[in-house]
Each structure stands twice: as structure tokens, then as C-alpha cells.
Amino acid sequence: LNSPQMSRLEFVSPEGLRLDGRKVHELRRVDIKIGTVESADGSAYIEQGNTKVLAVVYGPHESVSRSKMEHNNAIINCEYSLATFSTSERRKRAKGDRRATDTEQIISQTFEAAVLTELYPKAQIDIYIQVLQSDGGNVAAAVNAATLALINAGIAMKDYVCACTASCINGKVIMDVNYMEEGGRGPILTMAVLPQSQSIVLTHLVSRVHRDQYAAVETAAIDGCRAIQGILREAARAHTTRLAGIVQAS
Question: What is the DSSP string of 24-39?
Fold first, then answer.
């Protein structure tokens, strides 16, 4: 990914445009479908640019493991995987893939800070996430899809969990990083926030960033999260309106 050719690319033109035509602080196009898996308690499919993610939720249900069961709260179990066809690399991923395991832990902890787990004592909530196509910002897209799947399942949350990435390449701070930009030898910051309280529930930094640049990268990521909030809220509202129309028509 970090090849010499990549490092010589001009990721932002003198006119302030990126390789995909976006401005530096512009999100990729987001398309959302909610309730895509009828057999699940909740589900959502999201496309952020060419990154495509499906999230499915089951629960709350009785905890499968008594040793992990919490008497006063629900536990959140996450399983995250990349489809073998999701990238140009066709390598078979081994069981117990460390990166996937780390991502599962990151997502579980993110939603433990957002779900009202005290309403579901001794229960378990399962979040299954599959990246169908990978083009950067996979974890952020996964968090956004999981948020809508949990809402679709009727699970009580403090707020929407809205996630976005940011980076700094050749001194230019950019929002919502794609796969090619991830290869630009800049830091990749993934953040998730609860917009109403402005609480940060996820901060994950890949590669080092100079102290002087970090504040600008963080601001870009948070601004992206706020923009994502409006998109998620509108998608949830549209889905609810559609369901209400079906009920009235029946």
C-alpha cells in the first residue's frame, strides 16, 4: 500500500481537490438501506463511497456464556469480518485474525458507551458486521451501519454513534479517507462521537501524527462525525416514515 509511487502522488491538487474530485473536508457519497435482513432483529447496509458494509443485530437475548454474563448490564458481542472478495487481495484470512479481533473489541467498547445496557440485565446483544467492499474507512462505516442496525432492532441508546476518519497528507488535512489516501503515508484517525453530549466514544490512530497537526486532524474527524449524524438521522426518519405508511395502508 505505501509504495514509492503512492508517496509521489499529489493527493490534493493546487485547487484543493482530491483524486476522487472531493474537496478536502467533503464526505464521500453515503447510501443507506435499513431492515435489509428480515430474519434479524435489526440490520442496516451502508455505502460510504465504494466501502460497503452490512451490519446485523440479534438481541437482546439471554447471555450465551454464564461466565461473561453481567447481572446489571447487557454484554455487547461483536463479530467483524471482511468478505474474501472485498479487496483486490485474494488471500484467505486465517481464523483468529488479529486485526479483525482488535476491530471487534474497538466496536464493542464503542457501543458499550452508547447503548443503555443497564436496561437489559443478564442479556447479550450481538452485532455482526461484514465488509462487502473495502475502500477505506472500514471501521467508521461499520460503526455507522451498526448504529442504524441497533436502532432498527429497537435497542435503547443514548444517541446516534457517528463515525468518520481524517488524515494529514503532505500537510493537507482531509476528511473521510478512502483506500488510496490511506496509502499516502499520513496518520489515519478514526473517531466516533455522541453528537448531543459531544462525547467522544472512539479514538483510534494509525501511524504517528505531529502534535501540531493532531488538533486539525481531530477537528476534521469530528466535523465529519457531525455531518454523518444528519445523514444517519435522515435515513432512520425516512425508514420510520416508510414503515408507518405501510401500516396505514394495510
Answer: TT-PPPEEEEES--TT
Q: Whole-prediction pTM value?
A: 0.91
pLDDT tens per residue, range 26-48: 999 999 999 999 999 999 999 99
For residue 34, report the phi and psi dihedrals to the nearest 5 degrees: -115, 140
Beta strands across the sheet bearing 188-194 = 172-175, 162-169, 188-194, 199-206
Give me 235's grid cell. Answer: 435515513
Distance from C-alpha of 242 to C-alpha of 240, rounded to nearest angstrom: 5
Number of other residues whose CB lies within 10 A of the CB of residue 224: 26
181-206 pLDDT, tens digit per residue, is 998 889 999 999 999 999 999 999 99
138-152 and 98-112 helices cross at what angle (nearest 10)?
A: 50
Residue 134, beta-bridge partner list? none
